[in-house]
Amino acid sequence: MKLKHALTISSASDAGLVRNFNEDSVVADDDFGLVVLADGMGGYKAGDVASGMATMIIGNELKEKFAKNVGKSNGVDLETAMLRDAVSRANQAIYHAAHNKTQFQGMGTTVVITLFRDNVVTIAHAGDSRLYRLRNDKLEQLTIDHSLLQEQVQLGLISAEDARVSHNRNLVTRALGVNQTIAVDIRQERALPGDIYLLCSDGLNDMVDDMDIELAMVAIKENIPLLVQQLVTMANDNGGHDNISVAAIKVEKPFPLRTGFFARWFGAAS
Amino acid sequence: MAKLVLSMNGSVLGNYFLEKERFTIGRKPVCDIHINDQGVSKEHAVILTVGNDQILEDMESTNGTHVNGQVVKRQILQNGDVIEVGRYRLKYVNQKAMPDMDFDKTLMIPAFDRTKLKVVGEDNVGEDTASISTAVSNARNVKTVFPLGVVRGIGGGVMGCEIELVRAITPLGKIGGSAIITRRPGGYFITHVAGKKYPIVNGKSIGTQPYALDNLDQIEVGMDKLQFHLQ
Hints:
The complex is a heterodimer.
Chain A: E1 7-14, E2 24-29, E3 34-41, H1 46-68, H2 76-100, E4 108-109, E5 111-117, E6 120-126, E7 130-135, E8 138-141, H3 148-154, E9 171-172, E10 185-190, E11 196-200, H4 202-205, H5 210-219, H6 224-237, E12 244-251, H7 261-269
Chain B: E1 3-8, E2 11-17, E3 22-26, E4 33-34, E5 45-50, E6 53-58, E7 65-67, E8 70-72, E9 74-76, E10 82-85, E11 88-93, E12 107-108, E13 149-155, E14 162-164, E15 169-172, E16 178-184, E17 187-194, E18 200-201, E19 204-205, E20 211-212, E21 218-221, E22 224-230
């Protein structure tokens, strides 16, 4: 099932203005309706290895699995299981590399994944890379950061307003490659035509206010490649302190797995 | 390492390093900073250390706790903050706690041990917010040193309209073609977004690339004609 006709996908990754290396990685495949974005950390260039391993392993793993399931009418739970497996595989591979080679010691990576199938987007994430959605010109964050900052707010230690002046924005509480197992948050959402999904590393949302991200998405929704470039530009214009990775997916039309009467009927009903 | 410099009437009384997760200030002798003064409550304020943050919390003291002259209930401390407790001043010194300077490399830390920190107070319920905005305070607006730009409608549906280009992006046009004007550190730029017709500046099509606007440039986007002014 090719999704290119139903989804417009564009991505960009930039080192920013301060860092010498780009330790983020992005894989986007508009035939499979898959985007994987990872923000690596640790060691001299090792973060780049961790994020590269995560995007590659997760991408390949999912494509392989789908090749074996072509044409089958799957329940939504299959996607959840596949994503969980793929993230777990990547976690183990990074964990072993980090523990077997001194130059990779301490490396790890965040990850955020969107998988579009059968009018549903399955979302998985670990760490502080985010997924936003613009629907009816309103921006909404669909992932909750696994970060100390988020926990501080949830515990009531600081207010959401105070999060801007916190010094904990770089402390994540979950990352691939750090432990032998990884807890990954997975959720599913119905994807509607007109929706724009935005994956990003913290180099975007630490530098560009949510209000301005929304403004850009509303103003440039007719040109997804330009939107992605503009968001990177805005992060750099505001200082570009960190690597900036952005991927945007616009749902152009419904993408049911089954074709024929039922698909049309369900398509009309949704 | 973060520290507090205790002083009264300009003379320094001591230095205290914030080495504990819960650091107390008050009149009780068990407090980490013990101030024997009637203007100070028994347990006046605490400082919680969470990751890189030091959070000051007033413990419902009789005379209140001030930071830089403002009454505070709970606040994340920033390098150089001056805490006032009664007649005493505590200067917070932590080179790592500079606003907008904390873009250290990402680190993984274990999730929070919730049993270790006891927060006292009524409003510590925890916000039921799904998302928080982490953008640094200086990211709200591009730092611009040039004058504010405006576009004035001189033809089409926007005739007589005036749009101040305050935000990072201003959308223009709809029918036939649309564009954005972006406000950047180097000035204002116009870029084509969608539609067959590219924006025209001073009679020339700009194509797909951003075009730097000069004062009094005449712009056509779709059916609309506008003039750009730097105020």
